[in-house]
Amino acid sequence: MRKLKLVSLAVSVCLANLIGAATVRAQWADQRLAMFDKLMEREHQLAKLPHAAAAERGAWGNVAALAARWPLARPDFARMALQGEPIEDWEFDPAAVRAAAAGGPISTENLANTRLSGFTQNETASAWCGGHVVVTFNDTGAEVNTFEGSDGVSAIGASTSANKGSSYAYDGPPSPPTNVDQMIVGDPSVVCTNQSDFYYSATWWDGENVLTGVAMAASTNGGSSYGQPVVAISKDGFTHEIIKDALAIDPANTGQVYITYVDEDYSGTTCGDFPESDPNAGEPIPRYAIELVYSTDGGTDWSAPAVIEEVCANDANPNAFVEGPSVAVGAASVVYVAYETMGENGGQLTDRNIKIAVSSNEGASFATPTIVSSVNPVGDGADLQGLIQAAEYPSIAIGRGTHNFGYIYLAWDTATTEVNDILSTTGVYGFADILFSQSQNGATTWSSPKRVNTNPEGGPNPYSDQFEPAIDTDKTGRIGICYYDRHRDPNNFLIDRTCSSSTNNGASWTSKLYTKTNFPSVVGQDVLVAPDYFGDYDTVAVDKTNAASGFVDSFATSVGGHPNVSTNHF
Question: Which of 166, 210, 272, 459 is the most exposed place for a label (fewest CB within 10 A)?
Fold first, then answer.
């Protein structure tokens, strides 16, 4: 009898523990879902506003796509949140980590818990200092794993190299927020000042307080680990959406840090409301702005936003928009921000320009932006062939060689050939080429844009797309531009990675194909991303310590059937 009582007591204790653990897990799952519920509610509210749905792209476009199917997806997320015990730290199977040779995959898919997500890694940002290279990227594998964890969620991943990019280790998400109500949404940017100190920024969300913004975190060990993200800019999440951040540090003063971004502002504070005569009467007129914040202490404290350019998408300018900022710091700590505009001054969505703005007082204010060049929309103005979301965002670099020190370089894609297309929203399909321009006088004047990709087109040579360029320049003055390239496929579907370089300040270019096997435009496979999401940008990195010459290029390839990050060193 005594044994039976003891067994009964043990069973009761065990059941109580199980019930208690299940209750704790359920309470935690409710908290996790509450953050996503608020995020999806906010996305639904924004989607009702004029222009808002069309303006979302990149990481926030992925959030909007999830919000559209949230009623169906939420039960799946609830099951995922209830599964197992909360994970205290980022965990993954070391055997699954690729220590990849240069040119191979450096990110790792996560298929352990679902076959419908966890395998999209793209939109890369890279930094190289001395022996260390860090590559960050949007990563649904990190998103799935951190969703199941006990901290905040992070939708970015990172891979690190301690041998100048010869091999990499996939590290998973760098420093997710410890606050369970916060999320690193994506669109990462990364910089370094020496081989120990690396910094990344990314768009950020606070579900408890309904805030949208950008956060930055610092590493003092070459990118192996990071401190907690510090919020650089935050705004009301019900009336703003902060997207497309870019990060830069002044090489002459490494405590001076800059973050630029796009503020999609639906508050009506600046632009007011649509008049009674408008179909959107009473709704706030969208305001789109390129803004910048800066820190003088390495990212601990941040300034108020400086407005670089803002447009009101009112009845007189219904297509006005600004997007895709890129930032760099040149000689004498002058700050340069390049970006794309469309539909300004009553123009059409197809009326687009590359602009640049200059600050001579360390980001406190900017001179009136100037036009570098007009651009023609690539593809149909929204997507390339294969339903890849497209844009003409500029990439910026500052000369660091003895003969080009302080020169400003820009690269972007534009349609140089248009053909009639019966299904295109613009009536034509614009085949994309890569263009380059430079300024040798502090962005006062610019050279005529020059075609970078050297593949022949026209006549017996089919037209093809070259798109999403990334530019940098090394200590020798050599300029490198890498981009996606379809010239090997006469039908313009399969993609390669090509890098072009110039040793004569952009007068002529030599191009080299770096992918052995071209790959299809694989989109629409992952439930956590938008159907046409391919990534809006990549980067090329040079050694910012000037110890070595050459370039590290990071990009996404779907040669394995899904988007995965690769690099090449040239």
Answer: 459
